Structures are given as C-alpha cells and as structure tokens.
Amino acid sequence: MQTDPTQNSNAEILLRCEGLNKTYTQGRWFSRSRLTKQVLKGVNLSIRAHSTLALIGLSASGKSTLARCLAGIEQPDSGEIWFEGTNLAGLSRREWDPFHRQIQMVFQEPAASLNPRLNGVELVSEPLLVAGMKKEERHRQALDLMELVGVPASCARRLPAELSGGQRRRLAIARALALAPKILVLDESLSGLDLSIQAQISNLLITLQAARHLTYICISHDLDLVAHLADEVAVLHEGQIVEVGSPAELLAAGPSSRPISRFQEAAAKLNKLQVGLP
Amino acid sequence: MIAFIARRLGRSLLVLLCVSFLVFYLIEIAPGQYFEGLRLNPQISRQTLAALESDYGLNRPLPVRYVEWLRSIGRGELGFSFTYNSPVWPLLRPRLRNTLLLTTTALLCSWLIAIPLGIWLANHRRQWQDRLFAFATTFFLALPDLLIGLLLLVFALHTHWFPTGGMSSLTRADLGPWGKLQDLVWHLFLPVAGLVAGTLPILVRHVRSAMIEVLQAPFIIAAKSHGIPQRRLLLRHAFPAAMNSLLSLFGVTVGMLLGTSLLIEFIMSWPGLGPMLVQAILERDSYVVIAIVICSTLLLAAGNLIADVSLYFADPRIRQETGR
Q: Which residues of chain B lie closer than 8 angstroms to A159, CB-CB?
C-alpha cells in the first residue's frame, strides 16, 4: 500500500482523487472489435472533512461511476484515490474491506438495493454482524439506528416491500450508518420522493452530519436540493470535472458558455415538464 | 398453509385424472390388443376369444372400462394384468419401491453435488475453473443416457469393482443388516452414477446461471459495498434469492430422473418399473402400462408439490401473498 506524500500539508482533505480513469468495454457479436467508452477521464477531486460535496452533471456524465469507484464497488483503470494516507485505487477486495467501514454508500433505488428477504432490523444489523458484534447488542444498536433515522420500531420485523418509499430510504441510511463511517456516498438518494419526504430526509442528513461528523458526497439532479445541502459543488461533464465551487457561486446565473449553464437549462426544462408548462 | 397444500393437492389430483383418461384413450386407439396374438392361432376358436375378451371386459366401451378401472383403484388393485393374471398393484409395489430408492438417491446426490459446484463456479466466473467445467458439462450433455449406461457397464466389466446388474448379491440372505446395506449401496452405485451423470450437467448449469444473475442484483452490490464478506454474500444473500428458480427446477428434475431411470433400470437390470414397462408395452398388457404411467405422474406431481411447499417456506413474499 502506498502512503500519501501530501497528507500532512492537506490535513483538512479527507478524500482526494487524482487522474481517475475508467473505461467500460463491451464485446460485439460476430466481431473481434470491442465497444469502449471512457466514462471517467482524469478526474481530480478533493473532499474536505465534515463537508458535503455535490456531484452534478447530465445523464451519462460519469457521476455514478465516480461514486462507485470512491465506494470501492468498481476499480478505476488508473489514477489514485487517497483516503487517510492510503491509496485505495488498485487495492484488492480483501485489502478494501477495512475501508468499507469508513466509506459507505446509499443507493439510488432502496427498493432494489435492500435484500427483499431480510426484515428491517436484520438489514440494519447485518453490517454489525460483520464487525463481530453479539446478537443482542446488534439488535439493540440496529433499533437505536432505526430510531435515529426516524423509522418506528414497529417496522423492525417488516420486509422492505411492506415499507413506504421514505421509510426504505431511511432504512438504507441507517444500514449505511451502522458501521459509523466517515464518508457517506449518496447516489441520487433523495430522487423519486415527494417534496415533503425529500425535505424531511435532507434535514435528517444535515442533523446526522452535525451529530456524527459525517462527510457527504451527494449525487443529485436536483439543483434546489444541492443548494440546500452542499458546501461545494463539482460539475461533471463527459467524464471530466469542469467546474468546482460553492453553490452560491456556481448556481448563480452566469454567462451561457459555462458548462453548468447546460445543466441548469436541462434542469429548468425538466421542471417545466414536471409542472406541465409549455 | 393447509389451504395452500390442499389447493396444490386438488390440482395434482385433477392432473392425475386427466393423465389417466388420456393414457386410457391413447392405448385404446393404438393398434393391437393383448389377445391379438391369439387370433393368429388356428386352434383357438372365435368363440373362445370372444369369451376371453368378455371375461376381461375388453368388449365393453371405453368410458365403462375407465370407470371400472377407477373403482379398482378403490379396491387397491389398479387394474388387472393379463400377463400375470393378477391385480396390478401387488406386482407394481416392490418394483415401485426399487425405482423410488434409485431415483431418490440419484436426486439427492445430483442436487448435493450441483448446489455447491454451481455456487463455486458462479463465484469463479470466467476463470479457468469455470471454463474447464463448462467444457465438461457440454461433454456430458452431448452424451446420450444410453451411452453413459453402456460405458458404465463396460467399466464395471473391466474393473470388477461393481456388479453389472440386479440390486442384491446371491449371498445377500447370509449377510447381517450392515452387510445387506453395504451390498445394496454397492449395487446402487452404477445406476445412480448413470443417472447423476445425465442430470448433473443441467443442474450445475442452472445453479451457476441462477447465481450469476442474482450476484448482479443491486442488493448484492449494495451488500458488497457495506463490506459483507463474499462467503456470506453467496450463502446468505445470493443463494436464497436463486432458490426460487432452483426449487421450480427441482420438480422438473423428478420427472427427468424418472424418465432416465426407466432406461438405466432396463440396461442395468435394476428390478424397478423400467423393465416392467418395456415388457408390458411389448405384450400389450394395457393396465400395467397405465398403472406405471400413473405412478410416474404421481411421483412427478409429488416432486412439484414438494417444490411448491419448499418455495412457500423459502420465500417470505410467497407466504404473504398466499396469506392475504
């Protein structure tokens, strides 16, 4: 394992990636040639401790791939991911295991990302089992976590299919919090919810961040939400970070040549469609 | 739960009735009857033949014979064998027991090997182990069951490690209980190996592909990101999810094994239903054929019932659906 030469000089930076590249390859029928698509092209990014970084960009700009690389689900082809003095890129699955405790991910679709055969308390307590905790202790801690995220104890024995969309999101957050991570990667974790539930969960995230000193990497399409949650915004366009700044700077109307304006235009169109305006 | 089983049982009973009537009808329209051979004998008069057919009730219309056959089930006879001049059930019972012994052992062996092997291969997808087994399973799939049986017989003849037929040695009567069991296992080995060699490649491929499909599900990727170890991912998350399609396959394998076992029994002289069925077909002993087909259907229905009930226990979502 390599150690980070710039660790001492950037004590505030919790996670930093440099020159991250990722290419997907697909074979073709009756042909030796392969389809390749470079999803990440030399991504450089730094995330300060206890802050929220929002990753925004159009569809297929590489946001989810970047999140999956940071959470250790995908291996980047090249580049470095520095976390607490260790380069995570290129670690084997076994070597990654201890870092999974520190960097957890909340997925886009909790209905699909929670095992449909496990009930609420089993889902939340499972990561604790891996941490070697005894059954009663696990159970108690899982119930505490569920209470923390606002899932009533009566849902403990219910399967994910029996819970509402909002409860499933909360359960997914509780599961990700079980191992007391330092970083939570939220991949569109608030999309598809109605506004009041979205507001409740984003407020919950803010409360949890303060209470547990969490760092968030938040992927979203929703600019209002980004303005509400993020301390810093990075715009990803065709696999490259094209702008980084505070939400106030970036989301303020600027010259239309700026990359973020394309995203703002798209978001505005989407909003019009949603409210049925021409 | 009881209502669920009762519904399934009712459905199986209906299938059995339909199959029995269909077999009755098919045998009726098939050319040739048991007494057909006697017609060619000039020493037997037409009157004698007519009297014989009347005695056995063969001159009555099909629905009447069918109802009479259904009544004979109530009496525990399952029809009448012309060849053995006896009710069918006492003839069938010991042979059914032998066939059950063979197929159940083969079924257990096939699944007990296929499940861990399929999981292991799914976990080593596209590695050399996976490619090697893909080649081996294709090879065994391409071999006809008949050839597998004959190759096993050649193997037994050359090595003298296993008997080439039957299910007990001549000295069986002198053996103690432990010796009798050893003798039975020794005789079971080759027919079971033949059945397993025919079924295993299909099962391994199904287990492997079911596991691979589940391993790509979002909840498995999510569990992986939570740091759940691979062993637990495979056994606690992926395997139960893959179970649904495998349990449905279980019911089908019962039928598959029964079909192959009739052939293997015939080649290896296993005193089961197979040789009896072949003999009954050749001699047009129609009630024996019907009874054996009904027994096979019954076993198939039982296999599917076991699969359905296991599915009920394995998947909490099915319990909820049927509970509502």
A: 316-317, 320
Rg (CA), chain A: 19
Q: B124, B126, B215, B219: which to substitute to probe chain A, counting the most A Cβ within 10 Å?
A: B219
Domain that holds residue A36: 10-114+180-270
Compute the distance between CA of residue B181 and CA of residue B191 in angstroms, rounded to an integer.
Answer: 16
Is A148 inside any structural domain?
Answer: no
Sorted by sequence, the CB contacts under 8 Å of residue A29 that are 6+ apart come out as none
Looking at the 3D structure of chain A, how many domains does it have?
A: 1
Q: Which among B218, B316, B317 has the least Cβ separation from residue A113? A: B218
The structure's pTM equals 0.77
List, in order of start, the domains of chain B with CATH numbers. Answer: 2-88 (no CATH), 93-315 (1.10.3720.10)
Contact A112 B219 (CB under 8 A): yes
Q: Is the ipTM of this complex over 0.90?
A: no
Residue A150 lies in a domain: no
pLDDT in tens, B33-89: 777 767 777 777 777 878 877 777 777 888 888 888 888 888 888 888 888 888 889
A163 within some domain? no
- pLDDT 10s digits, B96-111: 999 989 999 999 999 9
Q: A260: domain CATH number?
A: 3.40.50.300
Chain A nearest C-alpha distance from B306 (Å): 21
Whether A225 is in a domain gets the answer: yes
Sign for the pseudo-dihedral over CA of B123, A112, A232, A256: positive
Question: pLDDT, tens digit, for every residue of A187-204?
Answer: 887 777 778 888 888 888
